[in-house]
């Protein structure tokens, strides 16, 4: 079908001559469209919650420094409660200026947390400049207490809000209904992806293929339910009304063409309905995607994979220092675990096994022994019970000791790998360390995971651990290698704490 016919189908949604919209959901103005919408409520909660968190943090800092007595700020004739209120307002405004409550970034990804951190540092930088200009002599202990308390409080508040949001989405609430504009194949892939990741908050409720004709009762098989497919026999307004969409995702621009795509943006203007263009790329971090203007045409530039950064000195220093600190802090746990293993089963405390590291170099990985001493000899007899393709995993492995079952559940058996991190054989975060027999079966694509040091934890650890299929675990490892960043490592480490505390997916 020609682009002109597609353009006419879109054009029927609004008559440019009269600028009148049909009586449907498309006719809603932005404020009306968002009344009662989950995003408006979510943002409103953050607006109020941020200010409350800041007031509590600043009040706690004052009590910590001065107790319950009255104290006044040096150089100015006002008390610390007044300074605290002013700083709370400055901090709150900094969050607003840096768009830390933008609906575009709340609820998913690390960008929301990054903006909170940047806004906090800049708020205190502004305070420092103000103090120098007006010679304000505020207590350094007060500020040194308020700064981390407020920042941690804001991050914790957002984490709690995000957990509640994800729980609501898992129950089918707080979702944005999506109309996909494009072909059936790409629409089915998108519907399946959203159904697999409900925390993203999108649900495909309709597909519109404006340059094709098909039966009115056509349905797309995929996602959580059957999705109606609409074609050139309906216009944009009818497609939006049928799907109840609050967002439009264009997956195949050839079904629209440049001119019709521009008109689509015009027709959605003022409706409160989001418009997205899907580049149809998966497992590529947004930090590697950059929009560039090429002679007036926007082009999406995909940066090269980031695995080179994972081998730099900065990551190595971070791994070494953090591993040494953890060894000191966790030394009581290490000692108790070692004693429990020694007293309850015969054999050595540690189990060492050859694994393949960065650039396919072998190394000896250290773990607490969680099995009987002749576990390797019993492997062949249990081979028929294996639950995976490449790895050997069974849920009720008879070789695991009672203490071993406990330490496996909470990943205590992996703590000695901190010594491997200090030695440089492993990293705190990275792909799962494979056996030589596994590497021998790798395709060229899978060998990319050997570009970086294997990790004690990784995306596979925080996404299901042993409950993941081998294919899914390998996909996550490749995504980590291609999209490495120090921020990503920190996020994975924080998520690891939660995964280990729950003890799910480990056996």
UniProtKB/TrEMBL annotation:
It is a multi-pass membrane protein. The chain crosses the membrane at residues 46-66, 78-95, 116-134, 140-157, 321-341. It is found in: Membrane. One of its GO terms (cellular component) is membrane. GO terms for molecular function: phosphotransferase activity, for other substituted phosphate groups. InterPro entries: Bact_transf, EPS_sugar_tfrase. The keyword Transferase applies. Keywords: Membrane, Transferase, Transmembrane, Transmembrane helix. Residues 315-501 form the Bacterial sugar transferase domain. NCBIfam families: EPS_sugtrans. Belongs to the bacterial sugar transferase family. This is Sugar transferase.
């Amino acid at each position: 079908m020609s682009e002109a016919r597609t353009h006419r189908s879109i054009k029927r949604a609004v008559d440019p001559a009269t600028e009148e919209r049909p009586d449907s959901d498309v006719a809603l103005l932005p404020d009306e469209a968002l009344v009662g919408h989950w995003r408006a409520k979510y943002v409103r909660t953050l607006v109020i919650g941020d200010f409350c968190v800041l007031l509590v943090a600043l009040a706690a800092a004052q009590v910590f420094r001065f107790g319950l007595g009255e104290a006044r700020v040096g150089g100015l004739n006002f008390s610390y409660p007044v300074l605290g209120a002013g700083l709370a307002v400055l901090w709150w405004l900094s969050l607003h200026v840096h768009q830390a409550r933008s609906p575009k970034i709340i609820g998913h990804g690390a960008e929301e947390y990054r903006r909170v951190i940047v806004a906090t540092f800049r708020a205190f930088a502004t305070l420092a400049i103000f103090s120098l200009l007006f010679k304000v002599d505020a207590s350094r202990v007060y500020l040194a207490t308020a700064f981390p308390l407020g920042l941690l409080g804001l991050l914790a508040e957002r984490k709690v809000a995000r957990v509640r949001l994800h729980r609501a989405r898992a129950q089918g609430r707080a979702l944005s209904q999506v109309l996909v504009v494009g072909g059936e194949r790409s629409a089915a892939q998108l519907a399946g992806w959203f159904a697999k990741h409900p925390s993203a908050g999108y649900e495909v409720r309709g597909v519109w293929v404006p340059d094709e004709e098909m039966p009115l009762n056509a349905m797309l098989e995929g996602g959580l339910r059957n999705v109606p497919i609409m074609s050139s026999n309906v216009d944009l307004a009818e497609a939006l009304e049928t799907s109840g969409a609050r967002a439009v995702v264009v997956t195949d621009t050839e079904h629209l063409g440049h001119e019709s795509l521009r008109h689509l943006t015009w027709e959605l203007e003022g409706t409160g309905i989001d418009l997205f263009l899907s580049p149809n790329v998966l497992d590529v971090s947004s930090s590697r995607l950059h929009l560039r203007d090429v002679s007036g045409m926007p082009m999406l530039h995909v940066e090269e994979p980031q695995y080179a950064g994972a081998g730099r000195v900065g990551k190595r220093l971070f791994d070494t220092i953090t591993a040494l600190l953890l060894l000191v802090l966790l030394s009581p746990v290490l000692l108790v675990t070692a004693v429990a293993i020694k007293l309850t089963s015969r054999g050595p405390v540690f189990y060492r096994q050859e694994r393949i590291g960065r650039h396919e170099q072998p190394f000896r990985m250290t773990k607490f022994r969680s099995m009987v001493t002749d576990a390797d000899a019993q492997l062949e007899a249990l081979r028929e019970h294996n639950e995976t393709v490449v790895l050997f995993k069974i849920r009720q492995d008879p070789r695991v000791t009672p203490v071993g079952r406990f330490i496996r559940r909470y990943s205590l058996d992996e703590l000695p790998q901190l010594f491997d991190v200090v030695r440089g054989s492993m990293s705190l975060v990275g792909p799962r360390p494979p056996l030589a027999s596994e590497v021998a079966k790798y395709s060229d694509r899978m060998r990319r995971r050997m570009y970086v040091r294997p990790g004690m934890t990784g995306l596979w650890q925080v996404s299901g651990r042993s409950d993941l299929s081998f294919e899914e675990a390998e996909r996550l490892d490749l995504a980590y290698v291609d999209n490495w960043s120090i921020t990503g490592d920190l996020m994975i480490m924080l998520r690891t704490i939660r995964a280990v505390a729950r003890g799910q997916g480990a056996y």
